[in-house]
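Q: Predict the bound structure with (S)-3-Hydroxyhexanoyl-CoA.
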Amino acid sequence: MYTLIDYSLDNELALIGLRRAPVNALGHQLRLEIQAAFQQASADPAVKALIVYGRELPFCAGADIAEFGDAAFAASPALPELLIELASSAKPMVAAVGGLALGGGLELALACGYRIAEPKARLGFPEITLGLLPGAGGTQRLPRLVGAEKAVELILSGQLLNAKSALDLGIVDRLAGAADSLLDSACAFARELLGQSAPAFPAYPHAEPGVATSGAALPADFFADYAASKAAQWHGQVAPQGVLDAVQAACELPLAAGLQRETELFDALLESPQSKALRHLFFAEREAGKVPGIDASLPLRPIAKVAVIGAGTMGGGIAMNFANIGIPVVLLEQKREALDRGLAQIRKNYEISAKRGKLTQEQLEQRMALLQGSLDYADLADADLVIEAVFESMEVKRQVFATLDEVCKPGAILASNTSTLDIDQIAACTRRPQDVIGLHFFSPANVMRLLEVVRGKQTALDVLATALKLGKQIGKLPVVSGVCYGFIGNRMLEPYSREAYRLLLEGATPAQVDRVLTDLGLNMGVLSMYDLVGIDVGYLIRTPMRAVLAEDPSYCRLADELYTLGRYGQKSGRGMYIYEGRERRDDPEVLTMAERLAGELGIQRRSISDQEIHDRCLFMLINEGIQILDEGIALRAGDIDLVWTCGYGFPTWLGGPLHYAEQLGLERVLSGIRQYREQLGAYGELWFKPAALLEQLVAAGKTRISKD
Ligand code: 3H9
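A: Predicted complex:
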């Protein structure tokens, strides 16, 4: 009668094993079966206690996110309703947490009177990352276990605890021995409880969660002050306030009323555009790894040794990723000093991690020992993967690849970290273009999660599949891109920044442009971003675009002028802004420069509205994204959104540029582009061309961006 659980009896214990692969998400059918099993055990006089566990699966990863917005989500028993029923059990229930207890999964465990975890289990409430709050009792039961302050911290961080920390906090009652079977330990625990005639549900240690750990009541304005202190960081996100309201309810209301309030708050968030955007990214991330033609049966190339060419910031950061997972790396440089500098920088980075307690001294030394410096290409002969991170010039890269073709063993994967150059041209100077691929890391490469995996025309499927797998192993989010100028991310950056620069000539100030973008939620405005990465870097990557100057003499002129003056941004103390230490201020000379250039180019200066800045920068970004999708450079809209949220600071709660476009309405985006095409004369005529796919989607009345 059960399809998603195993129900069995072990003398006086009922064992309820959840087995809905892959992660026991609490979909409707599983909820129905848990309810039925619970009722069966409750009604059986031979059963004295119940144990819930994951049968050969993680305990539970929470509510079934795919059900959100469907009738199945609310179908009885809804999760909150089910957990209220379990928490009212007349017999002790023990949750045996193996693997994971996340979100609704942890709420399931908290609805049991007792919890035991295996030492390697991880527990937490990741709902905030989906724009939600724990909506099945988490915001009411956790504060009663650990106090309101800790509960707020844990729920708002979305952080996962290891089992030991969960034990220390009182979220679990005990840990199973590392060598013991979790289920056996849970059974022993249940029998102990029965032996002690323990209550089915013990009293909460913080029956009044509003009393602080110090023993004093939380200040009356604790929640309001907390929200005020985080307002800038939250940036208009609604879920954190929802969490505070729910935990406040736990402090002020009896459990049943608090649970009711929690449900109302959860339901409101579930409908919010922000949560929809974050859920879109959740599924986009899972989709991104799926590439037509690649499945689990495709044999991958073994990667036991990696080589990185170039020990600069980028090369060093890339090398660290592999050392971090125990893969030996040869780091190749041309000169001894550069190599020593690079290795010293890597050591420094690890030392910072060690100081922060993220690494032991022993681990630091182990990782350094995996890094072998070299000045000789011959040391690359046995590498399974070589990644070049040399100067961004086609000439230089081609030379490197021609040499690699000579020295590398057959079957080695040859990767370029180029951010804009044509992988096919690079591959063409080898006799093995099928082994060549782009691996575009983002700086700092040991930190940033995005990895654009650039598939050349001839890249072999197993090379692509190996790169995707390895990318995941080193903790990155790999997204596949086809070959074009700048791939997905930098190609979209180009029209977006072009508009920002042009708006300065037309009358906007750098501070205004950046403010409009940060008001939207971007980490930083595009002009500040170039000051950070280097105006010289921007200049360099625009090189292939310079031909357009003939058609548009205003193209990125202000940035080019700053480059000529050696004002590279933060590193030279001056760029679009003036920097003094950490302070940044407006540069009046930039304004004068913009006025002069506008005069020379015959551009009429005027007052520019924030709306115009938003529309011109964002619509050009979106339009390019749609064009990239249409050309097949990106496999799906979600991939584009991942690149921009993960690599370019686009706010996750807007779901990425294309999801944002859907929220704005595709018609609005199209009519905005058409409007500027007319309004901006020859400039508009040149640049404001709607992507054909955007026109088709609007004409067909579609609201979602997709090629199908
Ligand atoms: C919640 O609980 C709300 C409640 O408080 C209140 C309700 C009233 N649902 O990531 P992976 C799928 S909100 C549905 O590739 P990993 C995933 O889509 C929820 N599906 O593996 C993928 O499917 P496919 C709070 C889920 O090992 C497959 O499982 N919980 C769910 O790298 C494998 O996933 C969370 O936010 C789910 N809950 O990571 C946890 N979870 O193969 C979200 C996973 O078809 N999940 N799937 O592409 C995760 O963080 C990771 O998936 C996890 C596994 C760490 C579990």
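A: Residues 22-23, 25, 61-66, 79-80, 100, 102-104, 107, 126-127, 130, 132, 134-136, 138, 266, 286 surround (S)-3-Hydroxyhexanoyl-CoA (CB under 6 Å).
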